[in-house]
Amino acid sequence: MGGKNMHILIIGAAGMVGRKLTERLVADGRLGDAELSVLTLVDVIDPPVPDGFAGEVRTVAADVSSPGEAGSLIASRPDVVFHLAAIVSGEAEADFDKGYRINLDGTRFLFDAIRLEGVKAPYKPRVVFSSSIAVFGAPFPEKIGDEFFLTPLTSYGTQKAMGELLLADYSRRGFFDGIGIRLPTICIRPGKPNKAASGFFSNILREPLVGQEAVLPVGEDVRHWHASPRSAVGFLLRAATMDLEPLGWRRNLSMPGLSATVGEQIEALRKVAGDKAVKLIRHEPDPFIIKMVGGWARDFDTGRAESLGFQAEKSFEEIIRAHMEDELGREV
């Protein structure tokens, strides 16, 4: 990638991680050794135009699960494609057809558009696919390694596992140079709650930090795997610039994170923001969410990813402080 101008395509650019990634790319003005010349930002709604970018910004409202849309996006031959677009876990479970259309068909159409563009003339971009730890299903070992088999227990996890297999096969066939990164649950998510079943992990910290009540639908003994939005962007940038040769054809890997119980989250909140914030958390058990969470991963062995340069927070206090610095303008 060194010494050239670069065109980056972000699909899912209006989402939280997409916006954060865009902000970081604009701030850096480059990816690896290459200066950014064009940013194409795509989502089902027009993504916001970033301030302060010297190059060209193209914003497109498009649904890559609609036939023909992906081909028109790939026709400009971006050098790096970040595929972040997805229907989140709770919504994919509630709306079976929509989940498969967006999460599976959209991914297949995008990957195939790249393959077909390469038929016209040589073309082999870097593709970074945001997968999820939801590809794993219980029962789990104490720590889940990359060798643990994929037996998802949700439609969302199944759709992401299918995307991983497609990415590995299209990479093996030489259609693109792909890497799939299994993101931990991102916490603390800024903004308003979304339809992700995991949203409460963020809600019980984000709302109390600004003096608002939050609902906790599960017990404090629930353990899960987390990383901050700041870490998620770091994962994506590393995946876009690293040498993929060491991965061989095992192109999907679990990202580093922090294993913590809800109780440990709450204690970290207490240390940073005091008892007053903790008292704003209201316990309201939700059987649907309790059932879903019971099949989620709790802890990982991410030595492979760490050996390749991926890094995340080591404590929940770090995660809370990152949110306060990045979203609330407060240093702690």
From TrEMBL:
It comes from the Bacteria. Signal peptide: none annotated. GO terms for molecular function: oxidoreductase activity. SUPFAM superfamilies: NAD(P)-binding Rossmann-fold domains (SSF51735). Keywords: Carbohydrate metabolism, NADP. InterPro entries: DenD (IPR050005), Epimerase_deHydtase (IPR001509), NAD(P)-bd_dom_sf (IPR036291). Residues 8-225 form the NAD-dependent epimerase/dehydratase domain. NCBIfam families: ErythonDh (NF043036). This is NAD-dependent epimerase. It comes from Skermanella stibiiresistens SB22.
